[in-house]
Amino acid sequence: MKKLVTRVLFSLGMVALAQGAMAGDPQAGADKVAVCAACHSDDGNSPSSAFPKIAGLGEKYLLKQLRDIQTWDQEQQQNIARPAGRAVPQMTGMLRNLSDQDLKDMAAFYAQYEMQTSGAREFDVQIYTGDMVDSLELGERIWRAGNLETGVPACTGCHAPSGMGNDPAGFPRLAGQYAEYIEQQLRAFRAGDRRNDGEEMMMRGTARNMSDAEIRAVANFISGLQK
Q1: Band of pLDDT at residue 21, cut at 50, 70 and 90
Q2: How far apart are CA 158 and CA 222, in angstroms?
Q3: Which end of the chain is more exposed for a tag (fewer CB within 10 A), N or C?
């Protein structure tokens, strides 16, 4: 019994250390995000689909993206042939001289806000047979069940049926995000242009067999999901 209690306490201690290692200070972050607000707004709800909403994406996910973007920028500056991390040319130089604590604080700052819902639209998309189908119906089917015939998994497995994601696992909220941004990222994963989904290639594996119609439809459906 004593050994069991010791193991439990040790495990809890390791969890606390891990959480502490990631934790940022949102108040400190408020003084570090001025450059971000120009595109993403003060609360992370970008007013334009040209830039993603970053409010409420989860501290763990936001921190990973900031680190990956910083890594790509630094390695690209060093003329490394295939830079690691995530390529976001619009953010070149913006994170270059920031410390890891700065990134933690910035992630914590935007994670505290609630993402505003963009709203889905009604339109038809053309599938492989040449038929036009309702994008919302197709999008919901891909979101909830995937496509067994082509090996596309359901999105809900990682991002939750509500689209609110899983912060401890580092899976971001998607509900309410701009459809244009989601579509862009799915295409980037499918093409291999975005590669920061880990060695398991979870997103690249998900997107590789998705058709253009499925990508456009599921992105539109996600943008209308609400908490």
Answers
A1: low
A2: 14
A3: N
